[in-house]
Amino acid sequence: MGEGRINPATGASEAEYFAHYRDEVYDGRVGMGLATIVRTARYGFGFTGDALVDYLRRAVAEMVDEGARPHHFGPSEDGFCTPPHETGPVSFGANTPQEIVDGVVETWVREGMDDLAWGDFRFSMAEAWEEDEAGEG
After folding, report:
1. What radius of gyration, in Å, describes the C-alpha atoms of the chain?
2. Is the dihedral of CA 79, 82, 86, 91 positive or negative?
3. What is the pTM for the complete model shown?
4. Mean pLDDT of all residues in the chain?
5. Which residues pair with 70 in a beta bridge?
6. Percent helix / strand / coil, the chain, rounded to 5
7. Of 59, 113, 116, 124, which has the fewest Cβ atoms less than 10 A away?
8. H or E, element range at 72
9. pLDDT by residue (tens digit) across 5-30?
10. Is 108 in a helix, a strand, or coil?
11. Which of 74-83, 89-98, 125-134 has the highest mean pLDDT?
């Protein structure tokens, strides 16, 4: 696959953004959020409809192929984090890579394809959550 479309605001290609998303999944529990990806696709690249869904699907697949898994951060007391979900891992079926990609994208589409709150579908490496729960992170 080629470089893909160029974001006119940054001059970066889709391929460069996908590489960035893969790198960010190693940033502890915070990782890379779907909210950022949706906003980049919608406002940076100007994608709508099927093109927006396709970009999101490819971005999620890149992170999942890297080994990242989705988590939610629930609402915070200070109001910074406002998603309607509880904090913790998100599962789809047997959690195969394809089930995760399909589940995340289908959930977002079913919920109206809106911009997301910070905390919705954060992608990070499972080890970051395991270390934190064990008191090592």
Report:
1. 15
2. negative
3. 0.86
4. 86
5. 123
6. 45, 10, 45
7. 113
8. strand 68-72
9. 999 999 999 999 999 999 999 988 78
10. helix
11. 89-98
Q: How far is C-alpha 92 from the chain's CA centre?
A: 15
What is the CA 127 to chain-centroid distance, rounded?
17
User: Do 123 and 69 form a contact (C-beta atoms < 8 A)?
Assistant: yes
What integer pLDDT is reported at residue 137 of this predicted model? 46
In which residue are the tokens 């529990």 written? 29
Q: Give the single-character DSSP code of 117.
A: P
What type of residue sits at position 111? E
* pLDDT score, position 117: 76
pLDDT at 124 exceeding the cut of 50: yes
Distance in angstroms (rounded) separating the CA atoms of residues 13 and 104: 23
Lookup result for tokens 């502890």? 28
Side-chain half-sphere CA neighbours of 121 within 13 A: 23
Residue type present at position 103: G
Q: Are 45 and 14 in contact (CB under 8 A)?
A: yes
Burial of 81 (0-12, 13-18, 19+ CB in 10 A): middle
